[in-house]
Amino acid sequence: MTFTYEIEGGNFSRAGSASSDIKKALKQLDLDYNIIKRVVVSIYEAEVNIVAHARRGTLTADIDADGIVVVLDDEGPGIPDIEAAMTTGFSTASPRVREMGFGAGMGLPNIKKNADSLHIQSTVGVGTRLEIAVNFK
Amino acid sequence: MTVKDLTEALELKVFSGQQGLQNEISGGYTSDLLSDVMGHCKQNDVWVTLQTHRNIMAIASLRELAAIVIVKGFEPEAEAINKSNEENIPILGTSLGAFEISGKIYELLKK
């Protein structure tokens, strides 16, 4: 199964809708709750990152019997220092985003902790690509 | 303990999600940072927060929480209420602060 979603930068009222859809699909697969949780935490954080930082992005999720691979491509500012961005507490989020309780510098660390693999490629001024995988077995 | 038991014991206001009052509560988590809750809450927790916007419901639904308690007399935004009714996850309210209500919930759940 392949799912594709468009994510709009700045639109917080839609944040999490792709994650919610994918969760519904995973629920049909009779997976352990802990696996669904790890997928959902990873995708939600990645989705929110696009909403909070980028102009727009796409999310593509491929699900088969062995696991899920999610690729998120955005057009946005890019990440100048990926190592810093992976540090818990490091954030470049705007004050507005922080007031909503986002932007605490926990997003990428949450993904790293919950996914089986996370690859980040980023070009400053162009955009960022995340590839997240969670194995079902 | 169900959400209904909790609302009665602590005189919490039920803003929305009445269909979920029978949800079973197994624990609790108190935080206003959404990624903190996303990463560290547990399924069937009751979540104590001062956030009122619709994204609290995205977290509650994705992580299958039992209910949300909004503190200090704040009220949920309309979009959060709609989503709470759709998902059957109640949003509750208290005039108390997070410290005090969390202590009371903790005492009840410990029994």
Could you explain how this protein is built, in words?
Chain A has helices spanning 17-27, 33-53, 82-85, 95-99, 107-114, and strands spanning 2-8, 56-63, 67-75, 117-123, 127-135. With 137 residues, chain A is of the alpha+beta class. Chain A has one domain: Heat Shock Protein 90, CATH 3.30.565. In chain A, a hairpin with a 3-residue loop joins strand 4 (117-123) and strand 5 (127-135). Chain B is of the alpha/beta class and 111 residues long. Chain B has five helices and five strands, in the order αββαβαβαβα. Chain B has helices at 3-10, 34-40, 55-62, 78-87, 98-110; strands at 13-16, 27-30, 45-49, 67-70, 91-93. The longest helix of chain B is centred in the C-terminal third of the chain and has 13 residues, at 98-110. In chain B, 45% of the residues are buried. Classes of the chains: A alpha+beta (137), B alpha/beta (111). The A-B interface holds A 12-13, 15-17, 19-20, 23, 33, 37, 40-41, 44-45, 48, 100-102, 104, 106-107, 110, 113-114 and B 32-36, 38-39, 43, 49, 51, 53-55, 58-59, 61-63, 79.
Low-confidence stretches of chain A: none
Which range does the strand content of chain B fall in? 15-25%
Proportion of residues in β-strands of chain A: 25-35%
CATH superfamily of chain A: Histidine kinase-like ATPase, C-terminal domain
Looking at CATH, the homologous superfamily of chain B is HprK N-terminal domain-like
Number of helices of chain B: 5
The CATH topology label of chain A is Heat Shock Protein 90
Largest sheet of chain B: 5 strands, mixed
Question: What is the number of domains of chain B?
Answer: 1
Radius of gyration of chain B: 12 Å
**Amount of helix of chain B:** 40-55%
Number of discrete helical segments of chain A:
5
SS elements, strand count of chain B: 5
| Strand numbers in spatial order across the main sheet of chain A | 1-2-3-5-4
- Identify the most extensive interface between protein chains: A-B, 24 and 19 residues
CATH topology of chain B: Udp-n-acetylmuramoylalanyl-d-glutamate--2,6- Diaminopimelate Ligase, Chain: A, domain 1
CATH architecture of chain B: 3-Layer(aba) Sandwich
Overall, the morphology of chain A is: globular
In angstroms, what is the radius of gyration of chain A? 14 Å
